[in-house]
Amino acid sequence: MEALASFKKEISSPKKIFITTHVKPDADALGSSLGLANYLLKKGHEVTVVTPTDYPSFLNWMEGNDLVLDFSREDHQKSATKALNEADVVFCLDFSVLNRVNELGEMIRQSDAFIVNIDHHQDPEDFADFKYWSTEAAATCELVYELIVELGDKELIDKDIAECLYAGIMTDTGGFRHPNTTKNVHLVVAELIDLGANPSQIANWIYDSNSVNRLKFIGFAISRRLVVREDIHTAYFAISKKDLKKYQSRTGDTEGLVNYALSLDGIKLAALFSEREDGIKISFRSSSEVAVNKFAASYFNGGGHKNAAGGKSERNLKETIEKFENLVEEHQDELFDQEPVSSN
Ligand code: 5GP
Ligand code: MN
């Protein structure tokens, strides 16, 4: 049977469903998970949503947030494991390689459940029974919307679901500014607005909920931790553990910082290096013609989208930055010598 047909059959009667998404979920990861969860609940399924780690508090307004289990919390792990062991269907949203969900990855690989992967990242691993995957999609939320429509259930999308899905599309397009902002993006969000999503309310929940510490941290980072290398069209932030502690940084506080580096005139490659408990976390952003996902995958054990990717490093902060600058210098011809493109 064709994969779509077996998927439809799989969810045609009430099932035990497990939904997960990548570490440190963003609005697309959590919005697609909760948007889908709320839809599946309406269809009569039993649904558990598990995130591998915590996520920023500016996402807590999403319907279903209170029921999310965080696998990194000891008090949630047992029920999350039980839900995965008992699941008939497992949905993997907004990631395509199993190492993006920490220990849950191997558990999913071993699972006998029907595995569904809904995602828009490049270079997917082959672990799913049904893949609803397209790199043309700006957000996983766009794909979840399309899947619900394809299943003939558009009328089941209520305000709560529309809000979750709108949020992911809004943030993954950088507020409808990145090169992935297509006509289809606008058509889908127009539908979501019709179905109850309020754009300014959602933008307010996500973008206008800063703490004073976070704002001061951003000011500090821009004035003291930004390095601009105009000669190689590159700018980056290097944030130490001490910096994060000084500003009592919470999950999500560094989100968006890297965009300030990319906003500089003439800068085509931006990076944020932040020193965490388990090594250096790296965010890359680029102008349309520069492929940072390939760069992240080749040199920093990461991946992502053409113009927004991430990776990690086990070296210390100083050595990681030296490696980064050397690599950009060495590969500047292939990185920057491309024609600008209108979409990714
Ligand atoms: P961010 O910089 O916002 O953490 O991530 C940017 C994009 O790259 C997101 O789509 C995210 O899923 C992806 N990404 C971030 N870190 C990694 C990583 O370590 N591995 C892979 N494969 N993708 C990543
Ligand atoms: Mn996404």
TrEMBL record:
Pfam families: DHH, DHHA1
GO MF terms, alphabetically ordered: nucleic acid binding
Superkingdom of origin: Bacteria
Residue span, DHHA1 domain: 250-329
Protein name: Phosphoesterase RecJ domain-containing protein
Domain DDH: 16-169
